Amino acid sequence: MADHNTCPVLTPDSVRAAYSLISPYIHRTPVLRSKTLDRIASTPQEESAFKGTAFEGQKPATPIFRLYFKCENFQKIGAFKARGAFHALLRLCSELGIDEVRKRGVTTHSSGKQDNLLAWDKSNNSEGNHAQALALAAFTLNIPAHIVMPSISTKSKIAGTRAYNARVIFSGSTEPERVAIVGEVIKETGAILVPPYDHPDIILGQGTVGLELQTQVEDLLKDSDTENNPKGDSVLNAVITPLGGGGLLAGTATYFSTKPSTNVFGAEPSFEGGDDGRRGLAYGSRIPTVSTLTIADGLRTPVGEINWTLGGIFAVTEQQIKDAMKLLLERLKVFIEPSAAVPFAVILFDEDFRRIVMKEGGKGGWDVGVVLSGGNTTVEAVCRLYKES
Amino acid sequence: MADHNTCPVLTPDSVRAAYSLISPYIHRTPVLRSKTLDRIASTPQEESAFKGTAFEGQKPATPIFRLYFKCENFQKIGAFKARGAFHALLRLCSELGIDEVRKRGVTTHSSGKQDNLLAWDKSNNSEGNHAQALALAAFTLNIPAHIVMPSISTKSKIAGTRAYNARVIFSGSTEPERVAIVGEVIKETGAILVPPYDHPDIILGQGTVGLELQTQVEDLLKDSDTENNPKGDSVLNAVITPLGGGGLLAGTATYFSTKPSTNVFGAEPSFEGGDDGRRGLAYGSRIPTVSTLTIADGLRTPVGEINWTLGGIFAVTEQQIKDAMKLLLERLKVFIEPSAAVPFAVILFDEDFRRIVMKEGGKGGWDVGVVLSGGNTTVEAVCRLYKES
Lengths: 389, 389
Fold this sequence. Notes:
- The structure is a homodimer of 389-residue chains.
- Chain A has helices spanning 12-22, 35-41, 81-96, 98-104, 125-140, 155-162, 175-189, 200-221, 247-255, 276-283, 318-332, 342-349, 351-361, 379-387; strands at 31-32, 65-71, 106-109, 145-150, 167-171, 192-193, 238-242, 263-269, 313-316, 366-372.
- Chain A folds into two domains: 4-78 and 200-387, Rossmann fold; 81-193, 3-Layer(aba) Sandwich (Rossmann fold), CATH 3.40.50.
- Chain A is an alpha/beta fold and 389 residues long.
């Protein structure tokens, strides 16, 4: 990976530069709206939902939402990770020269999982999406890729990675075993490690989600009447993204860092301590290891060192994620993985968040961008998810 | 409904005029592409798939597809039907004056079903989608709507229709019972009947799908390199739509009628005689009644009188529809109803169709528009569908 010392600083201009580099290689994914989901989100929660919580006996908040869903499930390889992977490789090429990168190749490791409900270890599909994104970017740029995955990976995952001509190297199933094999690969081939989130080039690549979203919202609102655009501007009051390793949230926050009117929030699962971002902020120190089997398996990763001090983090329960995901499937008509539903679950169910929107947005309400981060799941996994409830 | 004698003729210019009328009221739905689905569609079928068919022992066709999926599942009310309903009402208003239409109101009937696998009668969600589209259009234009639906309709369907301020009138559960009540409503209120498909105003409204698709493909291809656009033009070689009542297919064929390079095809389910369009063409006479419980419940309707002479109709089995739908869910990441998967099933599995594409497209292949007609189904219905297989 490009040396930290020579990386662009984390500014909106660097996100714009990243976008110029990667835009020939990625999809400009659509932004979807739904009046039904706006109405549901803008309906106060039932008071009974507060039983046993800090809000018991209090009047539910009455926030007003206009939502803009950024559909990164339609991105190449089915997740935003393609942005960071292309940016990391294009930056490597501009720094070392493409011949040097092609000579050495690139490497990362993957949990090798295909199915988010048959997790055979505590790794997550965040890595899986990154490994596939790296394989695609390397294939496109004609760079050798060495992907380390457990020997017990699903056949379809192995075949999927090999479809991009990547070399698959098998390892044991735990993360330390995979990391050890990656070390051997680097020693043997000189391949360059491309980490999944905790690197400026990855963060800037993921930040292009925010840039594209803001541009698209401006296009959508420029001819709108007062019913659809009561504020009369095209400023997003907030953008909310899933938080796993934190590359997407950090990149989005970077892009909006000079736009104080746009608040950037992160959304996590609370199950089994998956809310390491929120807890770390509360304790004043990053939580380096997380061990949760939340259904939002893309978000099991502990937040990275660069990313952990981001503010405004909210966490939701497994049932809330499932309820939000069902609405997104049936009403927005998008096929998404559970991790992608976490921000909308915060909007629907986190009473602290809803109070902020009510207080800050008032009668005009808030225009909120919601990042649907990916869609890498299966019909079988979705059906198992709803069978249990 | 506007008198047939004063309706615009079925020409591309009339579709353009319809588009000018309705475009402030509808979504310009996105067009999605997937290299993975292009590759799967361009892979020859296994010879074993031909066992017991006319193709047994023959070499599978080797067509090359570049697919453009027009996502009408993201349309208002979740289906293309919003286009026809808005056009029908706007035309009525321009013909009779909006005051007269508001005085009389409009009416139609609905099967009242919510769930495509718990059909309690042989009606279909094509009507359900139309009734909801009419309720939305009437609500938007401030016209009273009287929707007749069976008293045993699902609560969510009744609530959904009432959410648009429509008056719900209950009837018995069979179609003749519903039609009888519609007659009473008309007698009592003077309401104007808006049929679901067999009327020029509906056909022209649905035809705007074809117009939008062609425009979007031109935008997508204008800066493409030879890898993505080997033909070097932006002509769609074919558009394939589901065929139920035939409004969508007829409208699309109308729009492309002066573009002989673009072939328009219809796709039907074959189960229990659902392929009435294909059979009618073969027999030389429209088949007026159909009684099928195909999973593609939007396509149970017999093709309408205006629409039935359309050519180029292909039919697929229930299993083929399920296989195509699973690929669209998992790879294209769109949530669709089974009816919407029927055209892609033809592309994947109809060897006659694949031979045409191989012969006409040759090494350059064909650019094919695929209309994903709607997404009105539920997680439960989808899970039941795949539990059976």
